[in-house]
């Protein structure tokens, strides 16, 4: 059965209500009333006879100041009650609201008020205390089963912080001027190393590694990951901001503007029909055999010319008919019966009627992407041409065309017209210059932006952060089997008392699946954002994270994720709408039944799951692009059938990234595979950008180098280490520093010695100086 087109719009995040509801598990639902009760109890003792929404701005500020003072108390239980009252304010005082929109309005108002009063800084101190709470960590490690009760304080603090980051991050048209100012201040604050000399995101990364090392199994990982993702999204910027930064970066380097806006091109694309499955191919083959009885005689050459002239991309219907014929004739093994060749070369059927003009008006003419050529490609083309026509080469010279025939001149001209120089190429070139002439070029001016600050903080423990994220991704993947040694990511979803009835079990099952989906969504978005921002900031920063991901088996992990029924994953209904915030706190709760839980919502697809799939495909593309050894890993892990199955999802953006991954490995899959998958080949031609010299479709020019994974990765690692050493090593200029040759000044320098050194001074002299025989003759001979 053919799947329908999915009306999905990719973006930085889902709608605000969806993003706010995902921070809470369904098992946390009773805590909404608890937050309200603690707030009401405290509020009535200070403000009598009035509601929160009736107070003036100054009265609200005075009350928040009182709450801030109460957060300083030493009693944990009292602190928790105050934190719950603050959480109720951040949740939009829902008991005083009638609609979801009212809750969002008051939540926004209160969050800006809380930020203005300095609540976030106070919460950060409390969070640091909870992270360092060794007693809670050791008791959680000893517990056989961890539940929601073990992470209450952390969950309340992280929920408030998430609501503040997510609410302030979003811009709306009716924002007050002071709110706009507060947003910029908060953004700067989160991205700067203001918290113990490190940015806020680094504290959250530390929580992730601590959890994955089993030292703090009670940490609520879903909340930590969501807050980490939103913090990076807020401080560094989303995909639209990335595009703008890329345009500005190219202007700064005096590079020509981008040929097109990739976000707009992808949004205007249409999904292609998925390639036929094995069963469909068998049916088509049988139909073709039945149709052979009425075989036509061989056609004339002019009919063949007509067939060859037909452009398969002028009309979608014609293309589908042609490709279906190819699929049918190729069979499962792709072998064409000699008796059947005349069916293939029949003249084309009459063209189908044109579609209404309104349907075609929005589609761009021709191919969606402008072709690109690298400088390397032009050099390679000229080297091959010179060897062929002249018999010698001129190295990297791309200007001299003496002795080459006229068509080669035209080819070079066309290649140069489409030449594209990336920011990464400029950065690599600049880095080589800085390595060669460190004294002449002096120190590099490094822009202290949020990406640079975060990378500098992450660098010492980068591999730990990457491995921890991949461990969590593996534990949350639907294809993972439960193992005894795997991480327990359900600490912040399992209730203290396990369900008794069938209905409770069903509800918990949906909650657990939803919990895992949200973790996959947060990690995939977080990794993609990190890779994109680091690549723009400096290519070697991107390469080191990519290499850590590859060495931590990210490529097989993503392929394992896609090795499932991807259609059922994308259309999974692991959500209960009536329990989603803010719906559950405003409306009367209907009675839940097993039937209503089974039915789920009426959505055609699950936004977060489709979002996660696209992100994981984009990460895989980033890791393998222009990397021969990693492309060969895709071939070795037999990714082609897994990726081909993913094409069944009729969503243009997802198909584009699947086709890109298939395109880079097509030449290594053999002629038989290409012959059997002509529909996929046509889709690649139609949707993926062309590299003019890239012989991807035929594989005639297969890279002759042996597949040496280690050599390629080692060369890359060497370049990365040189870059890190030059830019971040404090003693990088040690060998160029002037040497002090004056004996008196050298002996006169103060040397920091341990406090107890004078007690063992004589022993040290005896051991290190007097008892060590010195071969003066040997030293003199070496000097000569």
Walk me through this protein's architecture.
The chain has helices spanning 16-21, 30-46, 57-70, 76-90, 100-116, 119-131, 134-142, 152-169, 177-191, 200-212, 221-236, 239-252, 262-268, 278-290, 301-309, 316-330, 341-344, 357-360, 375-389, 406-417, 423-436, 438-441, 450-458, 462-476, 502-537, 539-551, 554-562, 566-570, 583-586, 594-599, 607-624, 628-636, 639-646, 652-665, 671-676, 678-687, 709-728, 743-747, 761-770, 776-783. The protein is mostly helical and 784 residues long. Helix 11 packs parallel to helix 25 (502-537). Residues 405-761 form the Far11/STRP C-terminal domain.
Jot down its keywords.
784 residues; mainly alpha; 40 helices; Striatin-interacting protein 1 homolog
Tell me the Rg in angstroms. 32 Å
- Point out poorly predicted stretches: 293-364
* Termini Cα gap: 86 Å
Major beta-sheet overview? none
Q: Count the helices. How many?
A: 40
| Overall residue-averaged pLDDT value | 84
Strand content: under 5%
Helix content: 55-70%
Q: Tell me the structural class.
A: mainly alpha
Q: Tell me the number of strands.
A: 0
Which outline best applies?
Answer: globular
Identify the quaternary structure here: single chain
Q: How do you describe this structure in short?
A:
This protein is mostly helical and 784 residues long.
């Amino acid at each position: 059965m053919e799947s329908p087109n999915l009306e999905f719009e990719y973006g930085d995040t889902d709608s605000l209500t969806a993003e706010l509801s995902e921070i809470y598990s369904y098992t946390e639902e009773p805590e909404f009333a608890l937050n309200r009760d603690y707030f009401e109890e405290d509020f009535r003792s200070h403000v009598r006879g009035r509601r929160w929404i009736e107070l003036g701005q100054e009265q609200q500020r005075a009350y928040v100041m009182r709450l801030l003072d109460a957060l300083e108390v030493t009693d944990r239980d009292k602190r928790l009650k105050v934190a719950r009252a603050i959480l109720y304010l951040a949740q939009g005082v829902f008991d005083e609201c009638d609609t979801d929109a009212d809750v969002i309005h008051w939540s926004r108002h209160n969050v800006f008020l809380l930020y203005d009063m300095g609540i976030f800084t106070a919460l950060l101190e409390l969070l640091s205390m909870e992270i360092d709470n060794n007693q809670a960590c050791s008791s959680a490690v000893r517990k056989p089963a961890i539940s929601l009760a073990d992470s209450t304080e952390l969950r309340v603090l992280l929920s408030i912080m998430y609501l503040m980051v997510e609410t302030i991050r979003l811009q709306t048209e009716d924002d007050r001027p002071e709110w706009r100012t507060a947003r910029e201040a908060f953004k700067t604050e989160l991205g700067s190393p203001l918290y113990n000399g490190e940015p806020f995101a680094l504290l959250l990364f530390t929580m992730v590694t601590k959890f994955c090392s089993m030292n703090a199994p009670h940490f609520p990982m879903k909340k930590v990951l969501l807050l980490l993702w939103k913090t990076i999204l807020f401080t560094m910027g989303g995909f639209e901001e990335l595009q703008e930064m890329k345009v500005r970066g190219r202007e700064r380097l005096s590079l020509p503007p981008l040929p097109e806006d990739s976000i707009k091109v992808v949004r205007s694309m249409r999904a292609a029909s998925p390639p036929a499955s094995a069963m469909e191919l068998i049916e088509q083959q049988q139909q073709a055999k039945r149709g052979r009885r009425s075989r036509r005689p061989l056609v004339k050459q002019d009919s063949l010319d007509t067939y060859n002239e037909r452009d398969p991309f002028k009309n979608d219907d014609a293309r589908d008919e042609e490709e279906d014929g190819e699929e049918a004739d190729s069979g499962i093994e792709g072998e064409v019966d000699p008796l059947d060749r005349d069916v293939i070369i029949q003249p084309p059927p009459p063209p189908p009627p044109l579609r209404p003009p309104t349907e075609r008006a929005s589609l761009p003419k021709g191919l969606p992407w402008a072709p690109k050529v690298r400088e390397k490609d032009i050099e390679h083309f000229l080297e091959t041409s010179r060897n062929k026509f002249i018999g010698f080469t001129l190295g990297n010279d791309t200007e001299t065309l003496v002795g080459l025939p006229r068509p080669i001149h035209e080819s070079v001209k066309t290649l140069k017209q489409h030449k594209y120089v990336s920011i990464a190429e400029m950065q690599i070139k600049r880095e080589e210059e800085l390595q060669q002439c460190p004294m002449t070029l002096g120190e590099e001016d490094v822009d202290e932006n949020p990406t640079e600050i975060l990378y500098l903080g992450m660098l010492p423990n980068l591999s730990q952060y990457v491995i921890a994220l991949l461990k969590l991704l593996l534990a949350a993947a639907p294809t993972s089997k439960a193992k005894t040694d795997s991480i327990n990511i359900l600490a912040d979803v399992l209730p203290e008392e396990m369900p008794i009835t069938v209905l409770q079990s069903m509800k918990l099952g949906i909650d657990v699946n939803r919990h895992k989906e949200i973790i996959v969504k947060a990690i995939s978005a977080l990794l993609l954002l990190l890779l994109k921002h680091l690549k723009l900031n400096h290519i070697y920063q991107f390469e080191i994270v990519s290499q850590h991901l590859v060495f931590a088996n990210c490529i097989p992990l993503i392929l394992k994720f896609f090795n499932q029924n991807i259609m059922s994953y994308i259309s999974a209904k692991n959500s209960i709408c009536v329990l989603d915030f803010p719906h559950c706190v405003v409306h009367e709760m209907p009675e839940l039944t097993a039937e209503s839980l089974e039915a789920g919502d009426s959505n055609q697809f699950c936004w977060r799951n489709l979002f996660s799939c696209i992100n994981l495909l984009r990460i895989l593309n980033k890791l393998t692009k222009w990397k021969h050894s990693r492309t060969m890993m895709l071939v070795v892990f037999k990714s082609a059938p897994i990726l081909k199955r993913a094409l069944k999802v009729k969503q243009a953006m997802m198909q584009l990234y699947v086709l890109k991954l298939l395109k880079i490995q097509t030449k290594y899959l053999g002629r038989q595979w290409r012959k059997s998958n002509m529909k996929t080949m046509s889709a690649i031609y139609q949707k993926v950008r062309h590299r003019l010299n890239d012989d991807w479709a035929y594989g005639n020019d297969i890279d002759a180098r042996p597949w040496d994974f280690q050599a390629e990765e080692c060369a890359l690692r060497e370049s990365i280490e040189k870059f890190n050493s030059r830019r971040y090593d404090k003693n990088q200029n040690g060998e160029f520093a002037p040497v002090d040759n004056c004996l008196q000044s050298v002996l006169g320098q103060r040397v920091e010695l341990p406090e107890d050194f004078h007690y063992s001074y004589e022993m040290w002299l005896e051991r290190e100086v007097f008892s060590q025989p010195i071969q003066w003759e040997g030293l003199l001979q070496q000097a000569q």
